[in-house]
């Protein structure tokens, strides 16, 4: 009887090195043990832990001591390891460990969005050279099956847009601000108290986390290498309760979105736009109803049409689910001697600068309450080639509140318009500027 004809339980085990045993790593280790029989049946062979690399082994009394080591580099290159699962995070020294593992022929499963957003090319090249797999479903949206559909199910289609909520912390904060009317600072404090925000929330609230995820999404969707530095990034710290109130008045809400688009200019030349920033979207849009710390991603493709992926985007068990899905896929490939999908960068489209990307603005102004003000503001828009879609005006004491919503225009033209308006004598203050997605109300 050949090895491939043996029952799964009798085949040579797939041996796994686990790097990191925090919230997600602990769940992965637990599930590998508790669901060993089911995982063996799905993978076609037993899947066993060969070792767990942690910084301080003495801090993990719940784990078998014979599995623990502080020497990650030695573990990932061990002859006793087939697959490396990396859940440490960060760039270095993790990048070196994974490159060493791939060069040694080990397949890699990682949830490391920051590393993939900056160094996926190096990792894919090492995987290709060694004939190894590189899987990373958990890097973008936790438990949501998103990357594999982009990478495999939609590989025969032409994706035109990927837009989504990919950070649970910021979505919780904006959802709470919308429902309670509270300001940003007090809502962030509440999110920290409830455990939705880290002690240092910078990566989340300033958009770094979402930008890394946008780079991964754009790379997969448009078959083009996009790094985090290519992604225009703005956070939510400047979003106010007044912005949410203005959005409600327009039948909209505010979300921090990652938006990746295939853009065609007037000459028919295609490029990729990738950006992360707060956006006003219609309340009837599918993403508007995504509340709390949940994630959702909206995909548009030529043949498939509109698709939406929704679920828990973070947390130990949800993220471990995605990691184990990748691990089973890699183990299957090892059992049958095959390989998973490789990097697809055949399109190699240029990345369009934010200033050239078509967007729409919602501009709130405090202006003098006298005749001719609207004409001066409208002239500033016209001077920069920006068309106005809607104007709303209301009196506020001895001043007037003026809200202008534009049609699409290059972002640089819109920004230049706002700068000029801010210098007009009749404008007391540019109260807020926010981009708009979706149809007019």
UniProtKB/TrEMBL annotation:
Instruction: List this protein's GO terms for biological process.
Output: methionine biosynthetic process; threonine biosynthetic process
For this protein, the record's Pfam families field holds: ACT, Homoserine_dh, NAD_binding_3
E.C. number: 1.1.1.3
* Tagged with keyword NADP: yes
Alphabetical list of InterPro entries matching this protein: ACT-like_dom_sf, ACT_dom, Asp/hSer_DH_NAD-bd, HDH, HDH_cat, HDH_CS, NAD(P)-bd_dom_sf
Give the CDD domains listed for this entry.
Answer: ACT_HSDH-Hom
GO molecular function terms noted in the UniProt entry:
homoserine dehydrogenase activity; NADP binding
* Reactions this protein catalyses: L-homoserine + NAD(+) = L-aspartate 4-semialdehyde + NADH + H(+); L-homoserine + NADP(+) = L-aspartate 4-semialdehyde + NADPH + H(+)
| PROSITE patterns reported for this sequence | ACT, HOMOSER_DHGENASE
Its needed co-factors are: a metal cation
Which major enzyme category is it?
Answer: oxidoreductase
Q: Write out the residues that bind NADPH.
A: 113
Q: Where is the ACT domain?
A: 362-435
- Which pathway is it part of? Amino-acid biosynthesis; L-threonine biosynthesis; L-threonine from L-aspartate: step 3/5; Amino-acid biosynthesis; L-methionine biosynthesis via de novo pathway; L-homoserine from L-aspartate: step 3/3
Catalytic-site annotation from UniProt: 213
UniProtKB keywords: Amino-acid biosynthesis, Methionine biosynthesis, NADP, Oxidoreductase, Sodium, Threonine biosynthesis
**Record: residues binding NADP(+):** 19-26
Q: Please state which protein family the record places this protein in.
A: Belongs to the homoserine dehydrogenase family.
Q: What is this protein called?
A: Homoserine dehydrogenase
């Amino acid at each position: 009887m050949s090895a491939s004809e043996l029952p799964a339980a009798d085949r040579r085990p797939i041996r796994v090195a686990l790097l990191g045993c925090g919230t997600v790593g602990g769940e992965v280790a637990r599930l590998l043990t508790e669901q060993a029989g089911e995982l063996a049946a799905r993978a076609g062979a037993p899947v066993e832990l060969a070792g767990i690399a942690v910084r301080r082994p003495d801090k993990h009394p719940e784990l078998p001591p014979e599995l623990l080591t502080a020497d990650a580099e030695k573990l990932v290159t061990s002859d006793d390891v087939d697959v490396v699962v990396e859940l440490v995070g960060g760039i270095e020294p993790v990048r070196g460990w994974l490159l060493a593992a791939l060069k040694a022929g080990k397949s890699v499963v990682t949830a490391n969005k920051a590393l993939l957003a900056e160094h996926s090319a190096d990792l894919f090249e090492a995987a290709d050279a060694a004939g190894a797999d590189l899987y990373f479903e958990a890097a973008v949206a936790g438990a949501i099956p998103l990357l594999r559909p982009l990478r495999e199910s939609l590989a025969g289609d032409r994706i035109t847009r990927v837009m989504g909520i990919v950070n649970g912390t910021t979505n919780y904060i904006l959802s709470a601000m919308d429902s309670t009317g509270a300001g940003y600072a007090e809502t962030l404090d509440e999110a920290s108290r409830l455990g939705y925000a880290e002690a240092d929330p910078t990566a989340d609230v300033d958009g770094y986390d979402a930008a890394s995820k946008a780079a991964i999404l754009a790379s997969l969707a448009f078959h083009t290498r996009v790094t985090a530095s290519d992604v225009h990034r703005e956070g939510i710290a400047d979003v106010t309760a007044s912005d949410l109130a203005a959005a409600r008045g327009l039948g909209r809400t505010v979300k921090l979105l990652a938006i990746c688009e295939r853009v065609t200019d007037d000459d028919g030349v295609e490029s990729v736009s990738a950006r992360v920033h707060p956006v006003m979207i219609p309340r009837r849009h599918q993403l508007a109803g995504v509340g709390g710390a949940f994630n959702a991603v909206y995909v548009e493709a030529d043949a498939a049409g509109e698709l939406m992926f929704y679920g828990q985007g973070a947390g130990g068990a949800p993220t471990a689910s995605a990691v184990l899905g990748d691990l089973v896929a890699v183990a299957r490939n090892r059992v049958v001697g095959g390989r998973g999908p490789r990097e697809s960068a055949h399109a190699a489209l240029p990345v369009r600068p934010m200033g050239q990307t078509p967007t729409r603005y919602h501009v709130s102004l405090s202006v003098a309450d006298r005749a001719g003000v609207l004409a001066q503001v409208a002239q500033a828009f016209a001077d920069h080639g920006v068309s106005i879609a809607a104007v709303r005006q209301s009196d506020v004491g001895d001043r007037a509140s003026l809200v202008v919503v534009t049609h699409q225009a290059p972002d640089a033209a819109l920004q230049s318009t706002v700068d000029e308006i801010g210098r007009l004598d009749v404008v007391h203050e540019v109260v807020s500027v926010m981009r708009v997605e979706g149809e007019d109300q």
